[in-house]
Write a structure and sequence with these properties.
Layout: E1 15-21, E2 26-29, E3 47-50, E4 52-53, E5 58-60, H1 68-79, E6 89-95, H2 96-109, H3 115-118, E7 128-132, E8 137-144, E9 147-149, E10 155-157, H4 167-175, H5 177-181, E11 186-192, H6 194-207, H7 214-221, E12 224-229, H8 236-252, H9 266-272, E13 283-289, E14 293-295, E15 301-303, E16 308-314, E17 316-318, E18 324-326, H10 332-343, H11 345-351, H12 353-373, H13 376-379, H14 385-390, E19 401-402, E20 404-410, E21 415-418, E22 420-425, H15 427-431, E23 434-436, H16 440-447, E24 456-459
Parallel strand pairs: 1-21, 5-19, 13-22, 14-23
Antiparallel strand pairs: 1-20, 2-3, 4-5, 6-8, 6-24, 7-8, 7-15, 9-10, 11-12, 11-22, 12-19, 13-16, 14-15, 17-18
Length: 461
Amino acid sequence: MTAHCAKSGIKMRKYFLSLVALCATFVFLSDQANAQGNNGNLFFGSVIGGVKVDAENILNSETVELDENQRQQLQDRIAGADRDINNDADWRVISFRGLEAVLAESVETGKALPAEVQYMAGLQRIEVVMYDEENNDILLAGPGEGWEVTPEGLVVGSTTGQPVLQLEDFLVAMRTADNARQGQGISVSIDPTEEGARNLRRFYRQNGFTPEMKEMVEDAMGPQNITLTGVPEDSRFAQLLTIADYKMKRLSMGLDASPVAGMPSLLEILQTNNARLSSMAPRFWMETYYEPLAVNADKTVWQIRGQGVKTLTEDGFINRQGEAVDQGRPNKWAQQWADSMTERYEELCTVEPVFCELRNLMDMSVVAAIISREGLLQKAGMEIPMIAGTVTTPAWNAPRTVSTHCSFVRMNNSWLVTASGGVQVDSWAVAENMEEVESTQEILNVASERTADRWWWNAAP
């Protein structure tokens, strides 16, 4: 992970101040123009929960909601999907060959993708990748259920209330599998600029700090930079990485109240423990967190296990030139907060959809890495031009910068904190870590028994 933390060494009296990038909760609707590509309007009405990216590529706090007509149009589209989707299934299975064929049909006809295609047949997670040698196919399986549209315009499972997988994210995961293995991999980071850090030091030398100066402090730091690697910056995938990172920072710094019990902000932890440090600059980031893949003896089944996401931290400082320097070790209070987020990640997923969507992205990236690493397309003699690139995904405004916002609590000491960090998707490390588990063979035996003449079906374990 290449993101760096940043802080100013200037001390303040009686107050503990934290600065993070601003994030507001809202939904983001793709219009028909955004959904167009060289194959027409295949996608319709996608939404993203998080911060708005305006036409100048700046994140801002403007709240946008779907009006009732827009939400009803989306509801009507998903209501027209195959009725069998409403039957909950422990294993909902998707055929790669079938998915490729239905995408080719939509490209040929120029019609929008059916709802069951755009929303991956209502899959909640992809838990298993299988090589179906008998049918020269690759199968994906996981829990599936019916769906509904929330008042905000998010398509979620009707039982769990959690976001369903979306095809455009899966296409990006498949197309960037090799990127995830090289260089910086797939990541996002949000960092103050060196100029902003220097301006902030200068401001405190001249003015000190009182709560009334909050907006002046934010102006002094100025906009923070967003850096994305490994995925198209105008993709929904990139938007979700960025939004999840922002939301994490807001929770850590107390700009958003914790939605789950037992997860106080870092500021609350410091205040409760009357921590006495001259300064701190925690860097928080989220990355992949899985158990070893369970595989059968023939290596035709790969079961993805584990929570999927964890939060890490380390401390650092800003030198006089405004350059971020990592110290390579965690601050114990920041570590306590990071651990609490990891421990409560499942709870967060139920109340903050973006964290569930982040895990979906990581699952899909692991799936793509498995398929690439194991050469499954070659084994199946399969070509997937639609999945590989012919189908154009919607283009979103690319997030580039975000305003700085600060929070503070009264302290006995005088500190300044800024939080940087990001998200790191190390899918290949997951794909390379596996152990043989005899019971995985039964998954293939069950899932490969097709119960419908279509590209997806339900299987009973």
